[in-house]
Amino acid sequence: MPISHLWFRLRRSAAELAKDCRGVAATEFVMIVPLMLVMFFGVVEFSSGVAVDRKVTLVARTLSDLTSQSTTVTDTDLSNFFAASIGIMTPYAASPTQSTITELYVDPTTHKARVQWSKASTFNSSGNVVLSTSTHLQGDIVTVPAALNVDGTYLIWSEVSYTYVPAVGYVMAKTGVNLSDLTYTRPRQSSCVMYKTTVCTTF
Fold it and tell me: What is the pLDDT of residues 151-160, one digit of tens each?
């Protein structure tokens, strides 16, 4: 076969191949779908993470707000405050939530905020909130914002942490993302909120 004829057939085959659109949609589908799935699950997981982060902030505010409205609190009161605030996490699981309520007193001599009392919350085997020992010990010095560091005053300090574990671990961290927030509130009904005492302490 002459080379010219072979070259002509080769050019015609190339032209026909260029015009052939069969399989283009399938090829595009295979290339685009993985990217679209990653974007979809990424948006869903990120949106859920933002929603959980907002709820963590609300839990911290609720804890300090409820506590600051009291003049004296008991273990039962604190348990109720923790349980009420945890309800904010619905519809997300509440069990990863770790919360702490602490009262601080700003010592006018040292100008430092010291822990007066502190309680934390955990979950028992039934999934109910129970009180636990806080890592903040009585008399510990805590750094507070300068605007709140007023000598001779008390502060209710709430801390909340939550581990958000995404349903699809391929987009975000499989082990979860640690979210946390804290809030300071002044006692509203008295100069301090008493716990297991009849006077405002100044440790």
Answer: 999 999 999 9
Inside any domain, residue 4: no
pTM of the model: 0.79
Tell me if residue 141 falls in helix, strand or coil: strand
User: Is residue 60 a part of any domain in this protein?
Assistant: yes
Q: Total domain count for the chain?
A: 1
Of 58, 62, 59, 35, nearest to 170 by C-alpha is 35
d(CA 152, CA 56): 30
CA distances from 26 to 23, 31, 90, 116, 198 (A): 5, 9, 42, 68, 77
Domain containing 50 equals 22-195
Average pLDDT over residues 181-185: 96
Instruction: Answer yes or no: is 137 within a domain.
Output: yes
